[in-house]
Write a structure and sequence with these properties.
The complex is a heterodimer of chains A (262) and B (272). With 262 residues, chain A is an alpha/beta fold. Chain A has a domain of 168 residues. Helix content of chain A is 29%, strand content 23%. In chain A, helix 2 packs parallel to helix 7. Chain A is globular. By secondary structure, chain B is α/β, with parallel strands linked by helices. Chain B has a single domain, classed as Rossmann fold (3-Layer(aba) Sandwich). Chain B has ten helices and 13 strands. In chain B, the strands form two sheets. Chain B has an eight-stranded parallel β-sheet with strand order 1-10-6-3-2-11-12-13, sandwiched between helices. Chain B is globular, with a radius of gyration of 18 Å. The chains are: A alpha/beta (262), B alpha/beta (272). Chains A and B meet through helix 1 and helix 4 of A and helix 1 and helix 5 of B.
């Protein structure tokens, strides 16, 4: 990741990122769903999670971990569509920066993102689009972004896009012949917990990265303790644990689950 | 042709202007990123213009692996509903049967209440016609477009042809999405047809999208196929004669068919 380039620079091919805005109760937008079909291999992985409690080196290791594991990936990879910028105007890398990096490194792979509108969108300084009071911006490394809102001036919580993106993934599978859908969780809080549960309940490959922190590690601990307090849908081969120190291990899991070409 | 049922289409009913994504996504499951829109003659096509219609296109499209959009209906004779009235809408299901890697989607504008009958889902039954229209039974999926639950497309304001253009406008919207977001290419194939077909031919040409007019098919397709001024103005409009070989040549030239299927000519020569 080039720390010297502006965190605001759009780096996707063509230099433009379509923003599709939908109300949470609308039908799913065809334009956005179609963007996902341009991948070389019709598989889709959602990265869920966060980076709280992680230092600079931890975040670098996270990026290296995913880039290594996903080398040669030709499917769709997506996450929340946000980017954090610190008060000095420098990029503060998050899990949401990973899909764009994977796509940039792997021809045929596409990165998309979704985000719930949690506040009124504002234009600030040199016409930058800002999503909230903390200066969160749309991620400029994703090829398309879906913004989900509660009407033109209502606000959603930060989980407001979860059910929408799950439905889009199911539509890719059911109508566009995507062969595999899955979720990888890194760190994260209550929203990540919801995403993990919903992926596991759907029997999708649900991969938890051990050592990434917070809710992901909490759930891993419960699994290791005999699925303590966890619903039955966590039991089964579809829920996998991979160590953060071992990207080849994640890669093997993804390969075995059908996310790489045979 | 007899009215036989080979499959049970999925039916989507949408309001004019409403967002719908599943049918468009299903078109991307075609093996090849090309969408062909068939338009033209139906109830007003003469018997002579219908001669050889199906055979020509099934042969021309042999090996097709893309998506097709068409008016998703079938006309049945009023006094013998087992008999199908020839029309352009019979072609895509026949192509699909011959080309399993293709995907077809029918679009039907709703003017009247839909009715379930022993012959199928009736979408139109106008007194004075010697036929009535059902949702084509041999398509995987079909989108019925209405103004609202109560009202058909005939009352949508500001439409020049009383709602009859809804089919092609909806097809153009889908094609535009496929081109813009899913990297598809397109081709409009026009056979016979009247005023609404004319509007579609002109509108598609003006967008710069490829158009194929079948010369010898009659009515508006013939008129434009022989309009030198129109053809000079729109180089994206091509003409083929009403035979499989001529049409197939254009399909290869426009990359609707893959070049490895370009064996028709040599095989034909061998057979002769």
């Amino acid at each position: 990741m080039d720390q010297n380039s502006s965190p605001y620079t759009v780096s996707v091919e063509g230099g433009k990122i379509p923003l599709v805005i939908m109300n949470a109760n609308d039908g799913l937008p065809a334009a956005f769903a179609l963007m996902g079909t341009n991948v070389e291999m019709k598989v889709a992985i959602r990265l869920g999670g966060g980076c709280k409690g992680m230092g600079v080196e931890d975040k670098k290791q996270m990026i290296d971990f995913f880039l290594s594991a996903f080398s040669g990936y030709q499917g769709l990879v997506w996450s929340g569509a946000t980017r954090q910028v610190d008060k000095n105007g420098q990029l503060d890398p998050m899990v949401t920066d990973v899909p764009g990096l994977i796509a940039a490194a792997n021809p045929g792979c596409i990165a998309l993102g979704t985000l719930p509108r949690v506040d009124l969108l504002t234009l600030q300084k040199d016409l930058r689009l800002v999503l909230d009071e903390w200066g969160t911006i749309p991620n400029p490394t994703q090829s398309g972004i879906l913004i989900v809102q509660n009407g033109p001036d209502g606000k959603l919580d930060w989980n407001g896009d979860v059910d929408i993106y799950l439905r889009i993934m199911e539509n890719w599978r059911d109508y566009a012949k995507f062969s595999r859908l899955g979720l990888i969780a890194w760190n994260g809080g209550t929203i990540t917990k919801e995403e993990i549960e919903k992926s596991a309940a759907r029997k999708w490959p649900t991969i938890l990265v051990r050592g990434s922190g917070r809710v992901t590690d909490e759930i891993i601990a419960k699994i290791v303790n005999g699925y303590e307090d966890l619903p039955d849908y966590f039991r089964g081969e579809h829920v996998m644990i991979v160590p953060k120190e071992d990207p080849p291990y994640l890669r093997r899991k993804l390969w075995n689950a059908g996310f790489f070409p045979a | 042709m007899k009215n036989q049922i080979f499959s049970t289409p999925s039916l989507y009913i949408k309001q004019w202007g409403e967002q719908i994504s599943k049918p468009e996504l299903s078109l991307t499951s075609a093996s090849r990123k090309v969408v062909v829109r068939f338009t033209g003659g139906c109830g007003s096509m003469s018997k002579e213009d219908a001669i050889g219609l199906y055979d020509i296109f099934v042969k021309a499209f042999d090996g097709f692996e893309g998506a097709i959009l068409f008016g998703g209906s079938r006309m049945l004779k009023r006094f013998d509903p087992t008999e199908v009235v020839p029309g352009i809408t019979e072609i895509p299901p026949l192509i699909k049967r011959n080309c399993p890697k293709s995907v077809i989607l029918g679009i039907i504008p709703r003017f009247q209440e839909l009715k379930i009958s022993q012959h199928g889902l009736v979408v139109s039954d106008e007194t004075g016609n010697d036929f009535f229209t059902i949702a084509h039974p041999d398509q995987g999926q079909c989108v019925v477009v209405q103004k609202s639950a109560d009202e058909g497309v005939g009352v949508i304001p500001h439409l020049k042809f009383g709602g009859w253009e809804v089919e092609y406008l909806e097809c153009q919207r889908i094609i535009s999405d496929l081109i813009s977001y899913a990297k598809f290419s397109s081709l409009l194939v026009s056979y016979n047809g009247g005023k609404v077909t004319e509007a579609e031919i002109v509108s598609t040409a003006e967008r710069g999208w490829p158009v194929l007019l079948i010369n010898g098919s009659g009515r508006k397709s013939d008129e434009y196929a022989n309009n030198r001024k129109f053809l000079d103005k729109y180089p994206n409009v091509l003409v083929a004669e009403k035979d499989a070989e001529s049409i197939r040549e254009v399909l290869f030239a426009t990359h609707v068919l893959k070049s490895e299927f370009q064996v028709f000519k040599s095989q034909k020569a061998v057979n002769e």
